[in-house]
Structures are given as structure tokens and as C-alpha cells.
Amino acid sequence: MNSSSFTFVSIKNFIRMNIEEITAQITDMVIEYAPKFALAIITLVVGMWVIKRLMKFIEPQINKATKDETLGTFLGSILGTLLKVMLLLSVASMFGIDTTSFIAIFGAVMVGIGMALYGSIGHVASGVMLMIFKPFKIGDLVVIGGGQTTGTVDAINAFNTVLATLDNKRVIIANGNVTANDITNISGQGIVGVELTYGIAYNADIDKAKKIIQSVGDECPYVLSNPAQGVVVANLGDSSVDLATRPFCKSELYWDTLFYMQENVKKQFDAKGINIPFPNLEVHMMNKN
Questions:
Q1: What is the mean predicted confidence (pLDDT) over 179-195?
Q2: How many CA atoms lie within 13 A of 87 on its CB side?
Q3: How far lies 252's CA from each of 49, 153, 183, 255, 257, in Å?
Q4: pLDDT at 106 over 80
Q5: What is the pLDDT of residue 136?
Q6: How far apart are CA 150 and CA 181, in angstroms?
Q7: Which of the residues 63, 71, 136, 210 could staple to 140 if both were Cys, CB 3.0 to 4.6 A apart?
């Protein structure tokens, strides 16, 4: 065997030995880590399921203890997040990761993330303010931002507030934007006055129109007898006499009352000959001859 053949055989044997060593190492790693990996996945899946079921049990208990559904949902959101972080730390420890060092690294990372997400941290602080000052609670009908968004409060989470609009849309508003804007709580007092204005023609019978509006309010099943409804002349406009009324109803029946009054007053005006005016313009022609 010449030297070149010997060298080729040596290289071939070296490669075969290294492949066998690498294969053996991979096999050892699979044998060592496969059970840990499988156990970690099972722990993660089962843990997430347990946390979900646990929160469904805990949130009603918090609501019962605090007698505040809004606070219970908010605290439940934070508690759920903490439990998930603890679960992830437990899963990491199954791979032999030093959780003490991991927590220190995690804390440093969170500080960096906190600085990068300064605005998001502000939303959490705004959520805490909403919990403390309670401008509204779950189930209240509110207007956020001077009429920009109207809906029923569905949830107050750590970072955002969720509203359900009348057309069944889900509106998610960052807590910082909620506290930074005007908040009108329509449901806040339990009962609410429905502000309504009806314009009638100048040649229409004012007393007759007032009686029609009053009678529709008396017949409305949602309007309360106390405070009593009244009808007044609110404004003498360019083309109409504006009659204003404010029937009171329970907060949750605000829209039912509004729609009932609008529809039935119009029907009664038509039936009783009360005209609703529209803008008109008089043009005077001058003859220069």
C-alpha cells in the first residue's frame, strides 16, 4: 500500500469515527433531553389549561369578595398573567436552567422592555386609576372622548378597556386614552334623562304639539313617572319652533326610550297635522323698470 492510499484510508477512518462519535452524542442527548422536553410540553399545555380553568373559578370569587365585577375582572387579568409567568419559569427549570439567574436576567429584560414600552406601562397605571376612581363599571353605558365612542363597558383589562357598541362591534381602547379623554357615564346615576328636541312649523299649534309629545311620553312603557316629564319651547329658530322634552328612564333603557319617542312623536305629528319644517329661502325680485 502506497502512502497516498494509506492517507486516504486514514482520513476515511477518521471521518467514520467522528460521525460515530457525533451520532452517539446526538443519541445520548436525545435519550437525556427527550423525556424532559416531552414533560415540559405536557406541563406547559396542562398548566395553561389549569390556569384557564382556575381563573374561571377565581374571578367570580374575587367579584363576590369585592362586590365589584369590574375590579374582579381587572385583578383576574393581572393574576392570570403572573400565573403564566410562573408556569414558564417552572418549564424552564425542567431543562436544568438556573431559575435564579433566569429571574435576574428576566428582571433586567423586563426593565429594558419597560423602558421601550413606556406608553404601555402608562396604560397599566391608567387601568389602576380606573379601578381606584371608578368613573364607570362593567355594564355601564358610556361615551368616551366627547362622543367619539359610545358603548357598554364589557371589560377593563390591565392595558385596555373593551366596549360593546350598539351595532355589536367590539371596540378596544387603551386605558391611557380612556383617562386622557372626557368620560360621560350615561348609566352612572341609575336613571337618566333622554334629551329630545322637536321642531315644528311657525304656523303649527304649539299647545297641541306639546300635548302630543307629553302623551307619547306618558304611553311609553320605559318612561318613569318621577321625575315627571315636561315639554317647553326651547328655541325660536330660523324656520322652526323647537320644543324640548326630557323623559327619564332607567339607564339600561336609554336607547329603547329614545327610539320609542322619536318614532311615535313623528307618527302622532303626522296623524294630528303638525308639520315638521325644513329650511326655506324667500327670494324677492325687484323690477328696475
A1: 84
A2: 19
A3: 36, 12, 17, 8, 10
A4: no
A5: 85
A6: 13
A7: 136
- Looking at the DSSP bridge assignments, the partners of residue 248 are 193
For 119-136, write each residue's pLDDT tens digit: 566 777 777 788 777 888
Question: Residue 54 corresponds to which cell in the numbers above?
Answer: 382556575
**What domains can you pick out in the chain, each with its CATH number?**
18-116 (1.10.287), 135-185 (2.30.30.60), 191-272 (3.30.70.100)
**What is the overall mean pLDDT for the chain?**
78
Query: How far is it between the farthest Cα atoms of the chain?
Result: 134
> What pLDDT does 6 receive?
46
95 or 152: which leads in pLDDT: 152
Give Cα separations from 115 to 20, 112, 122, 173, 177 (angstroms): 50, 5, 11, 22, 19
Please tell me which of 27-31, 33-37, 197-201 the model is most confident about, judged by mean pLDDT: 197-201
C-alpha cell at 206: 304649539
Q: Helix/strand/coil (H, E, C) string of the chain?
A: CCHHHHHHHHHHHHHHHHHHHHHHHHHHHHHHHHHHHHHHHHHHHHHHHHHHHHHHHHHHHHHHHHCCHHHHHHHHHHHHHHHHHHHHHHHHHHCCCCHHHHHHHHHHHHHHHHHHCHHHHHHHHHHHHHHHHCCCCCCCEEEECCCCEEEEEEEECCCEEEEECCCCCEEEEEHHHHHHCCEEECCCCCEEECCEEEEECCCCCHHHHHHHHHHHHHHCCCECCCCCCCEEEEEECCCCEEEEECCEEEHHHHHHHHHHHHHHHHHHHHHHCCCCCCCCCCCCCCCCC
